[in-house]
Design brief:
Blueprint (H helix, E strand, L loop, with lengths): L37 E2 L24 E2 L2 H7 L19 E7 L4 E8 L7 H12 L6 E2 L1 E5 L5 E6 L6 H5 L9 H20 L13 E3 L5 E4 L22 H6 L4 H17 L5 H9 L3 H4 L10 H14 L10 H9 L9 H5 L15 H7 L3 H11 L17 H18 L3 H14 L5 H13 L3 H14 L4 H13 L3 H20 L1
Parallel strand pairs: 2-6, 5-9
Antiparallel strand pairs: 1-2, 3-4, 4-7, 6-7, 8-9
Helix pairs in contact: 4-6, 4-10, 6-9, 12-13, 12-18, 13-16, 14-15, 15-16, 16-17, 16-18, 17-18, 18-19
Length: about 500
């Protein structure tokens, strides 16, 4: 199987179940146990306080309480491979993707620490209040769990990534101007609906809170309505983007949400994170072209760009009382919508998921390799660490001499370089580690292969991935890396076959 065959060291333990793809696919079989899964939402129709503007949510389940066992099972015991990677670097609470076995539904699970919400009753009350809201512009909250020390929120799963993926880290095409304006309007509509529903504070509004559904439409994450702690004194974004009143008092007010929306508009204008002060200084120097995303290549009306920036500067006013209301923001943005009949997925350049509940599921590493997303693949290898070496690395007592300590330090230096994306230095240190011949690590070969891919050295990457397979013959990661390297070498059919083999091996891990 694969590019290298060896009977050396078969795995004795397999640590990870298959994780979940970036579409709304589902795992087959099984039925959820229901003892701790209760319906706590008696609202029907448009659901939630304040109404839903008549939107119908037949496919959104009632808000429920889940057991910790259900959610551990759905996320493979909160596996690192199930962590949603595309989130803010400053985010203090982890979000996982998962699959509820009973109703074949994909979910996202946000995990809080008990220290931020020590009282389970307060956590449950806050979650239930948010769970009453239902709107097509929201990623709706469908449940919670506060069993024991667990503090978990459960929401709908959005299959088409976050806004930064399409705005900052795009691969095929930059986000067109009309889609940026649509994202701004939809987020504003979500904020206004929730304001009317009595939820005026959205905590830490930023581009990572905007996700795209199966139709490619942007939605605002419900998780931002939940305070990061019971007192609400938490703001995780870089201080350069923090509302000035928060810096003064340590608390948020409704006008703080408008300030954050202003920073969000700057992201849409520039295609990158621009601190508000820098953006204002730029426009005051009459240099709007410096701020606007150059990847738009002039494909936008200048008067509209000026209107959006003027709106952003009003939102960023130092005095909260001088900022516009959300309803006024909506009025401005509504006049800028020029493609109402064009589906969002067409503007994003993605395919619509015709039957998202029955799409085949793939793991995070499969999706990353299929998309040739080296950054995502790097994050996965970094998160996996050296768990798979447990089945291949056995050291005798005499090896723990000074020599082995030196070798271990070399590997740690390579790991540090790998973590900091200094791939040339990582290659050098990993090579030193390998050449000693004292320890054989498939993970080191895999990491060096990853480094070669980043350095545009697919031949070397393929050799290392093959060597990782020789050390660990049934390791899916080795096959996945071979698939990426083969694709880089334009051996597309071989790459597709290798990707299929990797997926088969991962399926075997589920069985075993």
């Amino acid at each position: 199987m694969g590019c290298c065959k060896s009977s050396f060291l078969k795995p004795s333990s397999l640590h990870a179940k298959k994780t979940y793809s970036d579409d709304i696919s589902v795992r087959r079989g099984g039925k959820r146990s229901n003892p701790h899964h209760r319906n706590n939402n008696k609202d029907d129709g448009d659901g939630g306080c304040g109404g839903g503007r008549g939107w119908h949510f037949s496919n959104v389940p009632d808000f429920s309480e889940f057991s910790a066992a259900d959610l551990r099972d759905a996320t493979n015991n909160f596996s690192v491979n199930a962590v949603v990677s595309s989130c803010s670097d400053q985010e203090t609470n982890v979000v996982y993707r998962g699959c509820l076995k009973g109703d074949m539904r994909r979910i996202a699970v946000k995990k809080f620490s008990k220290s931020t919400w020590p009282d389970p009753k307060q956590f449950a009350e806050e979650a239930r209040a948010i769970g009453k809201m239902r709107h097509m512009r929201l990623v709706n909250l469908i449940g919670y769990c506060c069993d024991g020390d667990e503090r978990l929120l459960v929401s709908e799963y959005m299959p088409n990534d976050t806004l930064p993926k399409h705005l900052f880290h795009w691969e095929k095409q930059t986000m067109e101007w009309a889609m940026r304006l649509r994202a701004a309007l939809y987020v504003a509509e979500a904020l206004e609906y929730c304001r009317q529903s009595g939820r005026k504070l959205y905590h830490d509004l930023n581009a990572y809170r905007v996700l795209f559904d199966e139709n490619g439409s942007p939605r605002l994450s419900c998780f931002g309505w939940m305070k990061h702690s019971k007192d609400g004194k938490n703001f995780s974004t870089n201080l350069a983007y923090t509302p000035p009143e928060y810096l003064r008092s340590g608390t948020l007010i409704p006008e703080s949400v408008v300030f954050s929306f202003g920073t969000f508009l700057l992201d849409l204008l520039s295609g990158k994170h621009v601190p508000p002060s820098h953006a204002v200084d730029t426009i005051q120097k009459e240099n709007l072209l410096v701020l606007i995303d150059s990847h738009l290549e002039g494909n936008y009306p200048e008067e509209e760009a000026a209107t959006v920036f003027d709106l952003a500067t009003k939102c960023l006013h130092n005095n909260p009382k001088d900022r516009p209301e959300i309803k006024d923001i909506i009025s401005v943005l509504a006049t800028l919508q020029h493609k109402p009949d064009v589906p969002s997925y067409e503007m994003l350049g993605i395919s619509k998921l015709e039957n998202p509940e029955t799409e085949s599921q793939n793991s995070l590493i499969y999706d990353a390799c299929h998309r040739m997303d080296l950054e995502a693949l790097h994050q996965i290898l970094e998160a996996t660490d050296y768990k798979d070496d447990e089945v291949t690395c056995e050291l005798s007592f005499q090896q723990w001499a000074q020599q082995i300590k030196d070798v271990w330090n070399t590997r740690q230096q390579g790991d540090s370089a790998f973590r900091n994306t200094d791939f040339k230095s990582a290659i050098e240190k990993y090579t030193q580690f390998i050449e000693t011949g004292i320890m054989i690590s498939p993970t080191v070969y895999a990491r060096r292969s990853m480094c070669h891919l980043f350095c545009d050295q697919p031949d070397a990457a393929l050799r290392d991935a093959m060597q990782a397979q020789c050390v660990y013959p049934e390791w899916p990661t080795a096959f996945y890396l071979q698939a990426v390297a083969l694709a880089k070498l334009n051996m597309l059919q071989d790459s597709a076959n290798m990707l299929k083999e990797a997926s088969i091996l991962e399926d075997k891990r589920l069985v075993n």
